């Protein structure tokens, strides 16, 4: 089995770019990744691209060959759709392909165009990641689904509503702080805990600043075999050493746990076993904080905290940039932004930059050797976890 | 558009004949089901749903999808009926007034926005 290196990463700015087409966004990210990798496009043997709502947002199906063409590729191309975990799955399948020896160079990533529609329309299109018959028809939006999980969490662990809201506001504030120096982030600005607490409600107990924004953007990652990296003398100092994926029942009502995300538990166990690490070895993580409560559930599933203990981590400072285990130094989905089908690739790109030392927040994790990414689909009916390491 | 299995299940509440489907090993789900996600049983029978259930989690939605624009703000809840859980919209109560642990019954109502049938929950 071949080892897998990240040879290069590319990102667009994450933000509101309603006039830009999905194909243009992805081409920008892919060409930036090519420059970063120093690998010619003619060596790319496969394109794996994540996208969630292209058929709704742009009326465009059959995206993969279109995006390959836009990026100057002539190789086979496949679109992966796993809601907000689409790009995570695209990367995972790319890792598996390189490991198997079937390809030496895979371009993986994702793209999402969202702000060309107004918020109610986007709310409607995002909701299709939930169970259409039993949840969407019962008025469940995505914020509502995570609000149902947040309420269940508070009930399960005996947390007072005001304490719940304060701890979640600390997650939002932390991630905004982290995004300030990140040139790719949608919100490079401070958000105080008080501002978060004063925001209008979206689905109680979640308010406006508990929710990630609506974002346009793309991500692209060059995955290469160790042999290819050595043969071409590439500067590829980060390895993907673990990958895992988990699944759960689609609808909350059919889950054993309403306040836990076992799909992510399973994905983490698989990825850690694959990498030969455990949770205590992790120095830094990028997790799927589509809503503030989602970061709490993620750090519990990743084994950094016992169930019920993750809520106060940001408030206590443990997951802040200067804490023991910085979470979402990119700004996370919350402040960096969440172009749904691109996010899983963006997490890999940000973690690679953090470990290489060329991220604006790399100085917060000078000695980091092991980084984890956690990408979730829907209300974590699917989850993908990757382990990245500084190569020997 | 009709959704066989789901439509019959929803409309059974109109006649107070709400049901769930139970596999040969007693696992309860909502239809349509061909195989039990718990045990793999493919034998299902329709069983009467208890008249009321208990709210397991609930939220007040202030920012709805377009299909519920005129309904907002509204509460949506996941209710434990014992053998199966059901998600629905709370009616005939002020948003925010129903809490975890409260007893509710299921019925069919109409969305104020679209007039379409919706699984609604009402305090008992």
From TrEMBL, chain A:
Source species: Halolamina salifodinae
**TM annotation in the entry:** none
Question: Which Pfam families does the UniProt entry name for this protein?
Answer: Thiolase_C_1 (PF22691), Thiolase_N (PF00108)
> A single Gene Ontology molecular function, please?
acetyl-CoA C-acetyltransferase activity
Keyword Acyltransferase on entry: yes
Q: What is the organism lineage in this UniProt record?
A: Archaea, Methanobacteriati, Methanobacteriota, Stenosarchaea group, Halobacteria
Fetch the Gene3D superfamilies from UniProt: 3.40.47.10
Q: Which InterPro entries match?
A: Thiolase (IPR002155), Thiolase-like (IPR016039), Thiolase_C_2 (IPR055140), Thiolase_N (IPR020616)
Key words, A-Z: Acyltransferase, Isoprene biosynthesis, Transferase
Protein name as it appears in the record:
Acetyl-CoA C-acetyltransferase
Limits of the Thiolase N-terminal domain: 12-227
Q: Name one GO biological process term.
A: isoprenoid biosynthetic process
Record-linked PANTHER family: ACETYL-COA C-ACETYLTRANSFERASE (PTHR42870), ACETYL-COA C-ACYLTRANSFERASE (PTHR42870:SF6)
In its keyword annotation, does this UniProt entry include Transcription regulation?
no
Query: From which domain of life does this come?
Result: Archaea
Show where the Thiolase C-terminal domain sits: 244-389
Automatic annotation (TrEMBL), chain B:
- Which intervals hold domain ChsH2 C-terminal OB-fold? 49-107
Pfam annotation, one family: OB_ChsH2_C
Going by the entry's taxonomy, the superkingdom of the source organism is recorded as Archaea
Matching PANTHER family, A to Z?
A: BLR3430 PROTEIN
Name this polypeptide is given: Putative OB-fold protein
The source organism is: Halolamina salifodinae
Q: What is the lineage of its organism?
A: Archaea, Methanobacteriati, Methanobacteriota, Stenosarchaea group, Halobacteria
């Amino acid at each position: 089995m071949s080892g897998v290196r990240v040879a290069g990463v590319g990102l667009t700015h994450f933000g509101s770019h309603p006039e830009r087409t999905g194909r243009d966004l992805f081409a920008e990210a892919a060409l930036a990744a090519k420059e970063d990798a120093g690998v010619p496009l003619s060596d790319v043997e496969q394109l794996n691209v994540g996208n969630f709502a292209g058929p709704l947002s742009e009326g465009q199906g059959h995206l993969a060959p279109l995006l390959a063409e836009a990026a100057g590729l002539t190789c086979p191309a496949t679109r992966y759709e796993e809601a907000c975990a689409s790009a995570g799955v695209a990367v995972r399948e790319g890792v598996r392909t390189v490991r198997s020896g079937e390809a030496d160079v895979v371009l993986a990533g994702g793209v999402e165009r969202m702000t060309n529609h107004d918020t109610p329309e986007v709310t409607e299109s995002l909701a299709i990641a939930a169970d259409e018959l039993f949840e969407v028809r019962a008025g469940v939006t995505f914020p509502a689904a995570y609000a149902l999980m947040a309420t269940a969490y508070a009930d399960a662990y005996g947390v007072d509503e005001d304490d719940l809201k304060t701890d979640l506001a600390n997650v939002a504030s932390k991630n905004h702080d982290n995004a300030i120096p990140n040139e790719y982030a949608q919100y490079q600005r401070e958000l105080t805990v008080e501002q978060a607490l004063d925001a209008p409600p979206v689905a109680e107990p979640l308010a406006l600043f508990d929710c990630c924004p609506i974002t346009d953007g793309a991500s692209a990652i060059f995955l290469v075999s160790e042999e290819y990296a050595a043969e071409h003398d590439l500067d590829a100092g980060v390895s993907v050493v673990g990958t895992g994926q988990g699944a759960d029942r689609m609808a909350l009502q059919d889950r054993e746990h309403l306040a836990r995300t076992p799909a992510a538990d399973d994905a983490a166990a698989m990825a850690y076993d694959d990498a030969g690490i455990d949770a205590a070895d992790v120095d830094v993580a990028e997790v799927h904080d589509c809503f503030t409560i989602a970061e709490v559930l993620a750090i519990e599933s990743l084994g950094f905290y016992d169930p019920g203990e993750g809520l106060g981590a940001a408030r206590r400072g443990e997951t802040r940039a200067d804490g023991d285990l910085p979470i979402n130094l990119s700004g996370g989905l919350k402040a960096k932004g969440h172009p749904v089908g691109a996010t899983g690739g963006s997490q890999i790109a940000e973690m690679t930059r953090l470990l290489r030392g060329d991220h604006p927040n790399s100085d917060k994790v000078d000695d980091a050797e092991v980084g984890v990414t956690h990408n979730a689909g829907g209300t974590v009916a699917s989850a993908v976890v990757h382990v990245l390491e500084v190569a020997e | 558009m009709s959704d066989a299995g789901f439509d019959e299940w929803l409309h059974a509440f109109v006649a107070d004949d709400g049901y769930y489907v139970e596999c040969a090993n007693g696992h309860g789900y909502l239809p349509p089901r061909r195989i039990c996600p718990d045990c793999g049983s493919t034998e299902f029978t329709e069983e009467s749903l208890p008249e009321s259930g208990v709210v397991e989690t609930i939220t007040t939605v202030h920012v709805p999808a377009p299909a519920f624009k005129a309904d907002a703000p509204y509460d949506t809840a996941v209710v434990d009926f014992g053998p199966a859980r059901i998600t629905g919209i709370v009616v005939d109560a002020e948003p925010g007034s129903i809490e975890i642990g409260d007893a509710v019954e299921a019925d069919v109502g109409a969305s104020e926005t679209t007039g379409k049938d919706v699984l609604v929950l009402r305090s008992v």
